[in-house]
Specification:
- The chain has two domains: 2-169 and 336-389, Medium-chain alcohol dehydrogenases, catalytic domain (Quinone Oxidoreductase, Chain A, domain 1); 174-333, 3-Layer(aba) Sandwich (Rossmann fold), CATH 3.40.50.720.
- The protein has helices spanning 39-45, 111-118, 161-164, 170-180, 196-207, 220-227, 242-249, 272-285, 292-299, 321-326, 338-350, 369-378; strands spanning 2-6, 12-16, 28-36, 56-57, 62-69, 81-83, 87-88, 124-125, 142-145, 153-154, 188-192, 212-217, 233-236, 257-260, 305-308, 330-333, 362-365, 386-389.
- By secondary structure, it is of the alpha/beta class.
- Helix 4 (170-180) crosses helix 11.
- It contains twelve helices and 18 strands.
- Nicotinamide-adenine-dinucleotide binds next to helix 1, helix 4, helix 5 and strand 12.
- Zinc ion (ZN) binds at residues 38, 40, 60-61, 86, 169-170.
- Belongs to the zinc-containing alcohol dehydrogenase family.
- Its cofactor is Zn(2+).
- Residues 196-266 form the Alcohol dehydrogenase-like C-terminal domain.
């Protein structure tokens, strides 16, 4: 089959690789019909994950049609149309039974490696390094889906792929980030990052009772989409000081809830050395713009909440514990427990409360995936979200 493979920093190619096959009785094989590129993929392309290997298949936002199921699979059969969550979860361990699927104890075959670094192992994830299981990803013609009775959600209506694809990751991720922010009726929420995740955060804030949403980015098209239909007031961080502006907009008190939908940010910052220099300057000398999380800690009102869906790949971050402690902030974060949100969010799509296709700006064949990565990473040609069609 054809698949998008990682070959090193800023080097992805479409290669011919062996078709996947059923390895465990709980597996299914799907033929991928639509598959998206995520900001998380950019962290891999930027070379932040040391446990990538030459030829690894990327992609964790796929949907498709079931081709084959293992002997133990009960809920799926060939021909079923499914969306596949990026998190792989067994469905029955201590964490899965508490709906904490991204903490699954049994789905990461390389748990020992992860444990050495983090103390405990997160769940396995599609196309996201050997530390997270070494599973082939979904930017490919076919995908092996472990624990097929637990993850994939069947789409039985005739909703098109465009409207349901983002259940695989970014709609649940935006929604969980808004939930984690602990929004109370009428709260002012500031959202850093108007990428695909930020856009779903903004929509979800309204679903959860926000009174006001302020969105921060520098990319005109993304700010414009955030502001569309009055969804958010916006701040362009190239033009305005974010702290000063947020204080002005909240009578000096700061937003009640702050959401970091950026995470490790290197895209567009040039070389890795430039990124490191920037990070050092921001952390040690305070001469550069502060990193998003530091800025959020500074801006958040006392007693407020900071929710972090943005992915951090570093293991030794210089975290400003002093201000966070003295302001009595609450932090919530994590990889999304996607499985928990599939049914309720599919219902919102079916009800017409949201049409997730609003973020798609580009559609390309899988063969053009390297160009799609360039567009998405460079935010060129108004690119906000790319969908690939194998
Ligand atoms: P993206 O790279 O397309 O968007 C990031 C946006 O942040 C860009 O528009 C960029 O211009 C903006 N930005 C950069 N620096 C900023 C700053 N200082 N202030 C404000 N905005 C700034 O990525 P995405 O697909 O939207 O993903 C966003 C983050 O969410 C990534 O870190 C990704 O890895 C993460 N993510 C997490 C989960 C999860 O389970 N928690 C799932 C999916 C994605
Ligand atoms: Zn993703």
């Amino acid at each position: 089959m054809r698949a998008l493979c990682w070959h090193g920093k800023n080097d992805v190619r479409v290669d011919s690789v062996p078709d996947p096959s059923i390895l465990d009785p709980t597996d299914a094989i799907i033929r991928v019909t639509a598959t998206a590129i995520c900001g998380s993929d950019l962290h891999l392309v930027d070379g932040y994950q040391p446990t990538m290997e030459n030829g690894d298949v990327l992609g964790h936002e796929p949907m498709g049609v079931v081709m084959e199921v293992g002997s133990a699979v009960k809920n799926l059969k060939p021909g079923d149309r499914v969306v596949v969550p990026f998190v792989i979860a067994c469905g029955c361990c201590y964490f899965c039974s508490r709906q904490l699927f991204s903490h699954c104890d049994d789905s990461n075959p390389n748990a020992e490696m992860a444990r050495k670094v983090m103390g405990q192992s997160p769940a396995g994830m599609f196309g996201y390094s050997h530390m997270l299981g070494g599973f082939a990803g979904g930017q490919a013609e076919y995908l092996r889906v472990p624990y097929a009775d637990v993850g994939p959600i069947k789409i039985e209506s005739d909703l098109p792929d465009d409207k349901v694809l983002f259940l695989s990751d970014i709609f649940p991720t935006g929604y969980m980030a808004a939930e984690n922010a602990g929004i109370e009726a009428g709260d002012t929420v500031a959202v850093w990052g108007c990428g695909p995740v930020g856009q779903f955060v903004i929509q979800s804030c309204w679903m959860l009772g926000a009174g006001r949403v302020i969105a921060i980015d520098r990319v005109a098209e993304r700010l414009q989409l955030a502001a569309d239909k009055g969804r958010a007031e916006t701040i362009n961080f190239d033009d305005e000081d974010v702290y000063d502006k947020l204080m002005e907009m909240t009578n000096g008190r700061g937003p009640d809830r702050c959401i970091d939908a950026v995470g490790t940010e290197a895209h567009g910052a040039g070389s890795m050395d430039a990124v490191i220099d920037k990070a050092k300057a921001a952390l040690m000398l305070g001469t550069d713009r502060p990193h998003v999380l530091r800025e959020a800690i500074r801006c958040c009102r006392k007693g407020g909440t900071i929710s972090v869906p943005g992915v951090y790949v570093g293991m030794l971050d210089n975290f400003p514990m002093g201000p966070a402690m003295n302001k009595g902030l609450t932090f919530r974060m994590g990889q999304t427990h996607v499985q928990k949100y599939l049914a309720p969010l599919l219902e919102k799509i079916q009800d017409g409360q949201i049409d997730p296709s609003f973020i798609i700006t580009h559609r390309l064949p899988l063969e053009d995936a390297p160009r799609a990565y360039d567009l998405f990473k460079g935010k060129d040609d108004g690119c906000i979200k790319v969908v690939l069609h194998p």
